[in-house]
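Figure 3 (text version): structure tokens given as input.
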């Protein structure tokens, strides 16, 4: 077994940590990046070079079976040195130098296993929060047998499925000794590239409550399981996955999953279903058919997020929102594995997860905290003022905010880019356009103004651009080209005059705009316009002399806080 360069670096980092520090390290390698070769190398060195004993802990039977299978495949010289201690697998080996065990089976039986020198925890993000737990109980008892036992975690996500980093001074794991990123491994050809469907609408989860850092499951399923929206989302899955070989769907609950399965079946797309209550034999047969390509589509509920390996997956559909960055990553990560049958993996996000958590290679993880943050705010779509969320009428321009609509999930998949730096070009139909004079914030007196153009492209969705009539050089040249493409009127002498002409109908109406977006960057750019006919010259010159509409609150307006 020859390690990839980053895998060798990970092994060396573990050894360096164990030599120089007395706490417990964690190795972070992305899903499908190959943690098992790292584990196998550490096991081989510990047993053959140092005469030690290693225990590999996992939290579910499937991960135990996978660990044993992969260790046998990647380190065949160790096959007769690996034992299994698991009630679910009906095996209680205690003599082998390498033991793969389920934490539920051994957490009160550390003494039965004898002296263990090194404990490897696979999928370490499943470690419990600070405080007593099965892992902590087991480690305390293992230290009674061998006070020098060391702990090493391996994971793709060094934070819990809710929120919070798993490494800390008082945690079981204390320090990330090595980490390699998703984008780096994709660039090196070790992970499958991802792509997302064009579009930027996200699910409205404002009515959902949190429990333990995650949305309340019952509320999520009630929110998602609407027949019209399920049918719309399934129609989009059929459309966009037409050329895909294997589609894995994450549903919000059992009834929602069965609903999705039924609707997809009506379209002619056979879809399998698995959940935690699916009988073991039926589940194994369904997964086997899916992995071998006999079943093109598979919907699941909370069972295929961690440790499920099906390299043929080339489309992942997220039909559930999650507040957990770890769960979001694990779901998308099912498409990371390389396979000759695919060039990339398509991610369809119907739960607003990409917009909620960011690109999967640049997640920002925040520790859970209490209150004390800033008061919530919102942006007025008409004048773009940022105001307190309690306003129902904008104090600056009088815009009346509509009552919030509660949508179960998007009728179309939201695809803010799932990777940072990913470029998307999206064409939007323009429903309305607004013009206004813009003064740069904190600009000195006399600084040139510009005309702000706001295009309404959806419900409360606006795209903006600035046309610099009063500037010089390149900016003015762009403004002149912008004006020539739209109007027969003379070039305006000021932004104020330009607004008057535009509002009087002196420019062509926009039909659609193309928006250039780069994931991870704050602002989008409008790169193309489709315009209607250029109108004839305005007949009445007094239309140029009207005043701009006056907007603004009264002296009686007060902030509600």
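Below: residues designed for each position.
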């Amino acid at each position: 077994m020859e390690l990839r360069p980053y895998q060798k670096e990970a092994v060396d980092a573990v050894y360096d940590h164990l030599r120089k520090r007395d706490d417990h390290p964690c190795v972070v390698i992305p899903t499908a990046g190959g943690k098992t070769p790292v584990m196998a190398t550490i096991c081989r060195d510990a047993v053959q070079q140092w005469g030690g004993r290693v225990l590999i802990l996992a939290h579910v039977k499937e991960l135990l079976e996978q660990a044993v299978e992969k260790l046998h495949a990647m380190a065949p010289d160790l096959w007769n040195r690996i034992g299994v201690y698991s009630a679910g697998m009906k095996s209680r080996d205690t003599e082998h130098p390498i033991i793969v065990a389920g934490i539920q089976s051994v957490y009160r039986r550390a003494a039965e296993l004898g002296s263990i020198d090194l404990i490897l925890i696979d999928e370490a993000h499943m470690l419990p929060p600070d405080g007593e737990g099965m892992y902590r109980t087991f480690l305390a008892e293992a230290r009674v047998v061998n006070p020098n036992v060391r702990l090493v975690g391996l994971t793709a996500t060094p934070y819990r499925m809710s929120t919070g980093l798993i490494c800390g001074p008082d945690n079981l794991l204390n320090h990330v000794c090595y980490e390699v990123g998703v984008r780096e491994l994709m660039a090196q050809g070790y992970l499958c590239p991802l792509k997302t469907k064009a579009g930027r609408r996200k699910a409205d989860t404002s009515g959902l409550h949190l429990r333990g850092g995650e949305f309340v499951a019952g509320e999520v399923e009630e929110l998602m399981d609407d027949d019209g929206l399920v049918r719309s989302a399934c129609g989009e899955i059929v459309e966009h996955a037409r050329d895909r070989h294997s589609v894995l769907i994450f549903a919000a609950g059992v009834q929602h999953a069965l609903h999705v399965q039924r609707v997809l079946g009506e379209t002619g797309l056979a879809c399998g279903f698995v959940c935690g209550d699916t009988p073991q034999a039926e589940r194994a047969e369904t997964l086997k058919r899916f992995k071998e390509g006999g079943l093109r589509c598979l919907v699941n509920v909370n069972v295929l997020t961690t440790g499920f390996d099906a390299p043929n997956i080339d489309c992942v559909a997220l039909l559930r929102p999650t507040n957990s960055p770890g769960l979001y990553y694990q779901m998308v990560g099912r498409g990371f594995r390389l396979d000759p049958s695919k060039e990339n993996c398509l991610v369809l996000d119907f739960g607003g997860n990409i917009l909620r958590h960011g690109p999967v290679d640049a997640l920002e993880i925040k520790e859970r905290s209490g209150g004390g943050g800033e008061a919530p705010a919102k942006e007025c779509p008409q004048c773009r003022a940022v105001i307190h969320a309690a306003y129902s009428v904008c104090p600056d321009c009088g815009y009346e905010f509509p009552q919030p609509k509660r949508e179960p999930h998007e009728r179309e998949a939201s695809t803010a880019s799932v990777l940072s730096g990913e470029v998307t070009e999206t064409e939007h139909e323009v429903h309305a356009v607004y013009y206004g004079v813009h003064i740069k914030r904190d600009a000195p007196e006399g600084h040139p103004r510009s005309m702000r153009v706001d295009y309404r492209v959806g419900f409360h969705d606006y795209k903006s651009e600035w046309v610099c009539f009063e500037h010089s050089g390149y900016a003015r040249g762009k403004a002149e080209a912008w004006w020539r493409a739209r109007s027969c009127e003379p070039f305006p002498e000021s932004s104020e005059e330009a607004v008057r002409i535009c509002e009087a109908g002196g420019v062509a109406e926009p039909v659609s705009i193309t928006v250039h977006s780069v994931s991870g960057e704050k602002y989008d750019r409008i790169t193309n316009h489709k315009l209607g006919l250029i109108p004839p010259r305005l007949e009445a010159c007094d239309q140029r002399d009207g005043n701009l509409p006056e907007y603004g609150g009264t002296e009686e307006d007060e902030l509600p806080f």
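The mean pLDDT is 82.
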